[in-house]
Design a protein that fits this description.
Largest sheet: 6 strands, mixed
Helix content: 25-40%
Number of domains: 3
Radius of gyration: 25 Å
Strand order of the largest sheet: 7-6-18-17-16-8
Structural class: alpha/beta
CATH architecture of the largest domain: 3-Layer(aba) Sandwich
Shape: globular
CATH class of the largest domain: Alpha Beta
Oligomer: single chain
Number of strands: 27
Number of helices: 24
């Protein structure tokens, strides 16, 4: 059985036509899709495109059954106005014109009373399509509404990688299929990035390549490893430092390469003298033998591809850990070889121009930027979160579900319950955010509108054309933005007045790319740089052309650096001069002896797919994974209700006793709806919104908690 349960491309039924598109969801793979479309205009089976060199005909099972989501009986179909108390579930069906009029009227009232910054358009990656996701920023800038600092997903990992390389790109990810060793570090690829496994297994079958997996528990990817390394949460940098220590000690370090391409190899070597395997073993929980074996494998395997995932971005020392892990490839000189080097994201290779789409020319630098992850603090009046300005009193929310996915959930729920806060939610389902809104309007899904996508985890720009007609009462994100612009008096501003297809063409033209019709015929465009550029053989992207072992944690540019008005964030003064373990994580203590991570589930994608029957059946119920020794010490049996908590709150959840987690570590897989939990409060009650150093982020896998058997 294929370990990833992939859905392979097969010929469709003769009576079906096949549409070509891209997966819109918040996943680095951005798979190229083939969609069966019946004569009556309904989608059927969804498959990976065989002729796409990264997707290679394989997609995840949850997207393959997308018809279950598109034709779900609970899909939102009509605009609704709240008819009772907030969250009471009483709704009145209204027309689209009435819904849009009421949203615009609420925004006008908020602006008149509290200024334009009182309105906060809030969005994220429910779709990764540029037009349908990012047009909300054009309205924001045209109206001078509060800015949006998108911190919840990428910042620590992106920052750590670019501190090292100067830009966010790396070797062609298809080289994972042409390597001798793949190190999958900080990503459960079987569950979250299936194509990583496609290419890694290809190298194993064709070249005898070894697969190393480094993570915090024995997840499905770990079970496929030739070498499986389970580290304590937040200790990745210690492992990386010990590997580099061994490389210098045992002659694996490529000194000639570093002399040409790195900023201070001598300083690094001196710094690492004390970072022995024994030192790292005490921190990571690995044995000295495991660390030595890993260092020997990558040190003697020139073609080693370090695939570094988004697990780094969920911990308070994630930027440091990412920088340290990427540094191994430079110490070993792995970048020189096909199938070698370090890769996290290719986001900087695409060079797509979003200025008109997002209304960048209208952006006012004096308008405050509010942190997406701190929505609970913003809505409950925290003066620091509000940048010491007035309250937020109106919101438009698209493509995200903060009442479920944002940290510090008790603050989030309290903020949304304010009677003076107006909230409009544009959604596909009655999410928990929609349930506490004032106006809910129904949104299209990806096969029902035009858009363009770029793939951070691979190398293609992909077209997502409209394949089927949406329900007649459902509207696109772009429609909502355009109609609100008319009602708010800014429809004549730059970027407004175009259809989605026209906007796609304008993005492509301004980016020097082929037009919509070309993409319609060819489906995608390979933007992978030449080998020398991708592997930094012409120098790294810093002004000095060097890989930086010594990062400038405060002053260096990064892909999502906060504006100067916010400045560096978190305990940035604690960040080290060279790669090192830095304990800014929530270290377990006597009162909170466990470390909790809220890891992704295979059949959900953040809060998406948690509404579909098959995904819910496969995931079962919310559970916390507990090591048998910890369960015995606390009198907990498999299936018991337990209570876990910290200073932010506590909740009840069922226990799953398993050796897949190490003692002292708890794992809660999947972002279940709050109401799926025993008492209606979900796992993000326990996660924090304090910003990650140096440029922000949400450390949702980095929590110290207590655990006890529930006495109720």
């Amino acid at each position: 059985m294929n370990i990833a349960t992939p859905i392979h491309a097969k010929s469709s039924k003769p009576e079906n036509r096949v549409g070509h598109t891209a997966c819109p969801h918040d996943c680095p793979s951005t798979c190229a899709l083939e969609v069966d479309i019946s004569e009556d205009g309904r989608i059927g089976r969804v498959r990976g495109a065989n002729d796409h060199t990264y997707t290679s005909g394989v997609i995840c099972a949850k997207v393959a059954r997308y018809a279950e989501r598109l034709y779900h009986p609970d899909r939102l179909m009509h605009p609704l106005r709240r008819a009772g108390a907030k969250g009471a579930g009483q709704w009145q069906q209204i027309s689209w014109d009435d819904a849009l009029d009421e949203i615009a009227e609420a925004f006008v009232k908020s602006e008149a009373r509290d200024g334009s910054e009182a309105i906060w358009p809030y969005f994220y990656a429910g779709t990764m399509g540029w037009v349908q996701r990012d047009s909300i920023d054009r309205l924001r800038h045209a109206k001078r509404y509060s800015g949006f600092f998108s911190s919840i997903c990428t910042n620590p990992a992106w920052t750590g990688f670019t501190m090292a390389t100067g830009t966010l790109r790396g070797p062609d990810p298809r080289e994972m299929g042409r390597t001798d060793c793949v190190v999958i570090w900080g990503t459960n690829a079987v569950s979250t990035q299936i194509n990583v496994m496609t290419h890694a297994i290809k190298s194993r079958k064709e070249r005898g390549a070894k697969i190393v997996v480094i993570d915090i528990y024995d997840n499905p990817t770990m079970k496929q490893a030739d070498m499986a390394l389970i580290v304590r949460p937040g200790t990745d940098a210690a492992l990386a430092c010990a590997v580099m220590h061994i490389a210098f000690r045992d002659g694996y370090a490529d000194r000639a390469y570093m002399a040409r391409y790195a900023d201070d190899p001598e300083g690094l070597e001196a710094h690492l003298k004390t970072k022995t395997p024994q030192w790292a073993a005490a921190i990571t929980g690995l044995s000295v033998e495991e660390i030595e074996a890993f260092a020997s494998l990558v040190g003697t395997t020139k073609k080693t591809f370090f695939r570094l995932g988004y697990g780094f971005t969920r911990q308070r020392n994630g930027a440091v850990a990412m920088h340290a892990a990427a540094s191994i490839a430079t110490v070993l000189g792995s970048w020189q070889y096909e199938g070698g080097g370090a890769f996290h994201s290719n986001s900087d290779i695409f060079r797509m121009n979003s200025a008109e789409l997002t209304g960048r020319s209208m952006k006012d630098a004096d308008i405050r930027m509010l942190d997406q992850s701190q929505i609970g603090r913003v809505l409950t009046g925290d003066p620091v979160a509000l940048r010491h300005r007035g309250p937020v009193t109106s919101m438009l929310i698209q493509n995200t579900n903060p009442a479920n996915i944002a940290p510090e959930q008790r603050l989030v729920r309290r903020g949304f319950a304010r009677n003076d806060l107006f909230v409009a939610v544009h959604e596909q389902f009655m999410t928990e955010t929609a349930e506490i809104a004032d106006i809910v309007i129904p949104a299209t899904m990806f096969v029902e509108h035009d858009d363009i996508y770029r793939a951070g985890g691979q190398n293609h720009i992909l077209l997502g054309p409209k394949l089927v007609e949406p329900p007649p009462t459902v509207r696109t994100n772009l429609f909502v933005i355009e109609e609100l612009a008319k009602r708010l008096g800014v429809a004549d501003r730059p970027g407004f007045g175009f259809t989605a297809r026209e906007m796609v063409d304008r993005i492509l033209e301004s980016s020097g790319l082929p037009d919509y019709d070309h993409f319609l015929e060819h489906k995608w465009f390979d933007r992978q740089p030449a080998f020398e550029e991708a592997h930094y053989l012409n120098g790294f992207a810093h002004p000095d052309g060097k890989f930086h072992f010594r990062p400038d944690w405060i002053n260096q540019p990064a892909p999502n650096k906060p504006p100067a008005a916010i400045g560096a964030l978190g305990p940035h003064a604690a960040l080290p001069a060279f790669p090192d373990q830095v304990d800014v994580i929530e270290v377990a203590d006597i009162e909170h002896p466990f470390r909790l991570a809220t890891s992704p589930a295979r059949n959900f994608l953040n809060s998406s797919f948690s509404e579909t029957k098959t995904s819910r059946q496969k995931e079962g119920r919310p559970e916390v994974m507990i090591n048998p020794a910890d369960a015995e010490a606390n009198g907990i049996a498999h299936g018991d209700l337990v209570r876990i908590g910290n200073s932010r709150g506590d909740l009840r959840i069922h226990a799953r006793i398993t050796t897949e987690v190490k003692s002292g570590v708890l794992i809660a897989e999947g972002l279940w709806p709050n109401k799926a939990h025993v008492d209606g409060e979900g796992i993000n009650v326990l996660t924090g919104a304090d910003p990650v150093a140096p440029y922000g982020g949400a450390a949702v896998h980095d929590n110290k908690v207590w655990l006890r058997r529930d006495a109720a």
